[in-house]
Design goal:
It is a single chain. By secondary structure, the chain is mainly β. It has one domain. It contains no helices and 7 strands. The strands form 2 sheets. It has a 4-stranded antiparallel β-sheet with strand order 1-2-3-4, with no helix packed on it. The protein is globular.
Length: about 80
């Protein structure tokens, strides 16, 4: 689980990202200015068993998949 704080993802600031081993996607929780959950979103459906999500010092968010054992970086559009 990771709380987005990076300026690289302004639309996601304050959102919580979590991985799903069982359901094979990334989950995003969106909160309003009062920290009330207002939206839930599935990202990268059927991508595979997500093992970890990290926001690194470079500001990018990376996630690791169990199979095929790769690390991916999320690049904002």
């Amino acid at each position: 689980m990771e709380i987005v704080t990076s300026d690289k993802y302004p639309a996601w600031k304050g959102n919580i990202l979590s991985g799903s081993l069982k359901y094979n996607y990334m989950h995003r929780d969106v909160f309003d200015e009062n920290d009330v959950l207002i939206k839930e979103e599935k990202l990268f459906p059927d991508i595979g068993r997500m093992r970890s999500i990290e926001q690194c010092a470079d500001g990018y968010i990376y996630f690791g998949l169990e199979d095929p054992g790769r690390i991916y970086r999320i690049v904002p559009a």
